[in-house]
Give the backbone structure.
Amino acid sequence: MIIILFGAPGVGKGTQAVILAEKLGVAHLSTGDAFRAAIKNQTPVGQLAQEYVSAGKLVPDDIVAKIVEEAMTNEAFANGCILDGFPRTRAQAEALEGMLSAKGAEISKVVNIAVDDSTIIARLLQRGRADDQEEIIRHRLNVYNDETAPLLDFYGGKGLLTTIDGIGEVDDVNTRILAAIQA
Ligand code: AMP
């Protein structure tokens, strides 16, 4: 089972992915977490990614593909995974298709979590991560709208997409996501 949790920064993908991975017994891959760990440990990938992550820019697709491919070789991914924050560009979506078809796997569902921009900004300012400053948040939202949101049409066209309301209690949103996956 391969589930993509889709949506702008701050819609709750990370929180929901952790809960879903536990409930469904599959792995969780957050490319953002992977980059933050690589930066903290100053690995070669971390050194390459650092300037992009701190500025709220997208890390180049080839570096992203490398970190995803590496994660997917992990045994924990045998049952499937929740993808959180990947893919974010058309090139990444195509790279993912290549990786999955090489394993004989395919995307089960893309769940788009919808939250309005003013709620997103308020949530992220409260979270207070290093890249959660208002100017960087606005940049990340612009990047999402320009580069990532077009994937909604890409996955919609394949009949894989369901959009759910991301406003409300964490458990209620999780119930909506599970219903979308099981539909
Ligand atoms: P996130 O934790 O998903 O909000 O990601 C934090 C930051 O990591 C983003 O602003 C990007 O700089 C970088 N990043 C995470 N995932 C990707 C991705 N799929 N493509 C490019 N950059 C990414």
